Amino acid sequence: MRKQISYVLCISLLIASTTYNTTTNAHTIEGYLALQNYIQNTISQHFYPNHGLPEVKRFMQSLTDRIHNQESGWFALWADYDQGKVYQISIGETIEFIAQQARRYGSRQTSELIKEEVTRKIMNIRELPPGILSEYIGNSLRRKVSHIESAAKPPVETHQNLYPSEECCICYSAFDGSVEQIFLVPCGHDLCKDCCKSHFFKFNNRTCPQCRTTVNKEQLQNAIYGKVKTHNYRSVWD
């Protein structure tokens, strides 16, 4: 009799455990889908109309999985999770995501500038309107990064003044159209093209033969050949 009671009790406990696990798993799936739907709707509105880009879709899925795995206690049993907390996490992760995307297109410094800009933009708004982050993804972000880095570059050094001569001061060839006249940066003095090549690149001089001002050899090489070789100036002579 005792054996039968024990057997029935074990079977009952097993059935109850199976039922509980089945219920828990069902509610966990329900909670996951609810979380996924909430995050997709929220992030999609922020990046609209660029929410369909592959990188945005991957980010939304990754964010859903991370929150579900790390904080599943919020909604595991009854699909009831703290939307406010999920929203705050989503905002923080979105800022980091944009910074990572910016880093793909530019320097770390530019990425940090983009991150600060996005943070200021969204932290001062209680309810974010649709499309508020559309310029921070895809080609729009690429153009923004390019614009920031172009603006940060130092101005190109140019001639302060030009001092045209009638002839080259080295070979005395007349500048009558038969030889090419090259103006040096920044001093503005001139030499013929052949003397520029020999003086600055064959003999590796760095100063103007007239005033001894240090010459920008990168721009000189560009003036001679229409392209810049920043590492081997001697190559223009070879």
Describe the fold and architecture.
This protein has about 240 residues and is mainly alpha-helical. It has 2 domains: about 1-150, no CATH class; about 155-238, Herpes Virus-1. It is about 55% helix and about 5% strand. The termini are far apart.
Question: What topology emerges from the helices and strands here?
Answer:
Blueprint: H1 2-47, H2 54-70, H3 83-105, H4 108-123, H5 138-152, E1 181-183, E2 190-192, H6 193-202, H7 217-225
Antiparallel strand pairs: 1-2
Helix pairs in contact: 1-2, 1-3, 3-4
Summary?
This protein is mainly alpha-helical and about 240 residues long.
Strand ordering within the main sheet? 1-2
Query: What is the structural class?
Result: mainly alpha
Number of strand elements = 2
Strand/helix succession: HHHHHEEHH
Give the overall average pLDDT: 77
Shape: rod-shaped
Number of discrete domains: 2
Helical stretch tally: 7
CA radius of gyration is 34 Å
